[in-house]
Amino acid sequence: MALPGHENCVIRGQLRRSNQRRNSPSSLWFPVKSTGDAVFFFLSLVSSSPDWLRLCFTLCPSLSPPPPIRRGEMGERNGVRAENPRAVWDYCCCCLFMAPRIRWRWAPLGFLARSPSAVSFILGSLAASGLVAVAFFWLVISSSRRSDPTLLGCRPDSEGSWSVGVYYGKSPFSLSPIELVGLVMLSSSHWGSLHAYVLFMFCVSIVFIRDFGFASYYLVYLLHRIIVARKNVLLISHYLCFLNLTSNLKCFPQIYMMPEGNKKGQLRLYRAVNFPLKWTLEKVLIRKPLIDPSLIQYEGHYWLFASDFTRFGIEKNAELEIWYSSSPLGPWKQHPKNPIYRADKSLGARNGGRPFIYEGSLYRLGQDCGGTYGRRIQIYKVEKLNREEFKEVPVKLGIEEPKKGRNAWNGIRYHHLDTQQLPSGNWIAVMDGDRVPSGDSTTRFLLGCTFTLLLLLLVMSIGFLVGAVNCCVASSRRNESSWLRTRPHINLRARRYLAGMNRYGSSIRARVNPKTCSGKLVLSFLVLVGIAFACTSVHFLLGGSGAEEAYMFGGQYSQFTMVTMTYEARIWNLKLYVKHYSRCESVREIVVVWNKGKPPREDEFDSVVPVRIRVEEINSLNNRFKVDPLIKTRAVLELDDDIMMACDDIEKGFRVWRENPDRLVGFYPRLVDGSPLQYRNERYARGKNGYNVILTGAAFMDSEYAFKRYGSQEATEGRALVNQFFNCEDLLMNFLYSNASSERTVEYVHPAWAIDTSKLSTAAISRNTQVHYDIRTNCLSKFSALYGALPSKWEFASRADGWDR
């Protein structure tokens, strides 16, 4: 194949010296088929003679006549014989600057240069995919990305983002989350859960120190393993603390700590000099890389349970061994049955906390690591433990399994529990937990890269089907690409495979004709698959763990009760509603206000939180705000059963309400203004850039304040109007809030998405929009006469976090 204007420049073969004039430095065999080969030759030439570099720059712009051409002696292959350096450089320039005008044969990625349409199609397709990915990120991912400043320094790593929960009960086998047993330790606006995040935590341990000034109180210290985020420095490893109270109660008790020292190959004992901040090394107990050591005194001996994964033939997280001594300072001896476990990591061999004694029996905690590291805690009752024998049997832990999956702080795994008995006889415990499995970030990255690669292959396939990309070789030997003929290391099987690809590819292209209806349908389907690949790739790479977590406020988490009002014709909506929202992390209970018809059974719902059906005698919208003494949380989310939103948006609204518990915080803003007052939709409020009403069909409120005020004597006339129009209960609540305070009483949170499921059924309460708006406009005039005017307005996008944009 010749260059235009240089018909004698045959481009073929490889760079090599002529067989006939092997010793002549000015005679080179220089057949070339690509710009890359020319550049390679040029660099080789310059490196051998600096003088040729100046000559090249002098001669290159002139593109002097081509060097003499004659047939070489490489069989049927043509070549170029350069008799002098200038001829060689002219040939180099010819290849470098004329190569873009060559009609290329197939080579690796050569099809991109063969046709500008191929490059244009691929770049255009990738650009379109990028726009889809950006749109998906903006509309879906960005709304759930955390900007909570309280979480700085508590980021997930390759092993997840562990949390610590506090439990309380009458025995170590009847423990419940402390927020569910009536021990409210927070201010009145922060009822709820007491679990808190740590950056990286393998275990927690409780130390009780009596405050001798007030003998009835105890201080509880939680020590845990933590890694500094920036330096990745291990501060305190897995540890064990045990107390040695002296006979003089005025003296501070001796406290010891036994950190895990497997990386140092030593098990060390430390004594507290200034608890809990300063420790000193007391003694090296055992010179072995023991993991998760736990010590307890039982029947005259000290027993040490630990794991040594350096033993030959041991499966990780599946080994347990026992050591014993007459003193915690040693010397320590191995149990003759070591290792107790060695092969099955789901048996709870690795320790999951300190052993404890309950009603005279010894219990050991272990980790079930089947499936993922630290998946569950198992508890064993030790039936025999002496210097010759050991036997234990599994027993039920008694802690209710989390049911909210990744939306719960310990929904995927929990692997360490530490419990102590209080002077009252009750028990307190701390347990860690994580919402993602081990290695989740790595798995998500690999999946994201996989879907990105699939997207690229799909783009190439679509380009091939529409004829924009053609990268297959000819099937006949005569027309076979020179790229194959010049590479004998590619065997015959590969040649047949590539040739087969060409035959089948041509057949597929003939059948999928973009000009036919079937061809357009196939291509449309592939485009949709490509969109799905782009969105899925962004989801795995940038979407986080997929958990819709609660938002911390004031260093604490909390919970709320959901209240919805419905009747028998909307049972389908209600079941979908309960299944979805019961899995939001901060939801404690769902109360269904049943206004009409035969109520369903509570066990009919697929719920992971308690569902309570409150049957009303009268079908009234006022029932929504009836005082309910069975509600245990201060925060209540009134949410219609036909509204579906993401749990993350619900959690945002709850966080905003906790900041301002004296306000109505909701997701549907309205601006009521004009003379006379007129009810309009959200579009009007957006146009005026302000709102002064929040619809209580989707709003957080203070259950004590809001319900009592709505049921007060002052609201009697308003409730009568609600019954008369069977409408406007949400407007009445806004007027009652506004009438009681001169401060701001409403706040808006923008949901990422919201679906009205009533549109999918015939059970909508207010299907005629115009009639609905006219009734509400009438309500506005009557309420304003009874309770005064509403405030002017508050603007959108006033929050620094942008949640009200």
Automatic annotation (TrEMBL):
Keywords, in A-Z order: Disulfide bond, Manganese, Membrane, Metal-binding, Transferase, Transmembrane, Transmembrane helix
Gene Ontology terms for molecular function: glycosyltransferase activity; metal ion binding
Transmembrane segments: 118-141, 194-220, 232-249, 445-473, 521-542
Residue ranges occupied by any Glucosamine inositolphosphorylceramide transferase 1 N-terminal domain in the UniProt entry: 154-192, 254-434
Protein localization: Membrane
Protein topology in the membrane: Multi-pass membrane protein
Pathway listed: Sphingolipid metabolism; Lipid metabolism
Start and end residues of each Glycosyl transferase domain: 560-791
Keyword Metal-binding set for record: yes
Pfam families linked: GINT1_N, Glyco_transf_64
UniProt cofactor(s): Mn(2+)
A single GO cellular-component term on record: membrane
Family membership: Belongs to the glycosyltransferase 64 family.
Function: Essential protein. Glycosyltransferase that mediates the glycosylation of glycosylinositol phosphorylceramides (GIPCs), the major sphingolipids in the plasma membrane; acts as a HexN(Ac)-specific GIPC sugar transferase. Responsible for the glycosylation of a subgroup of GIPCs found in seeds and pollen that contain GlcNAc and GlcN (GlcN(Ac)). Maybe involved in the maintenance of cell-cell adhesion.
Name of this protein: Glucosamine inositolphosphorylceramide transferase 1
Organism: Ensete ventricosum
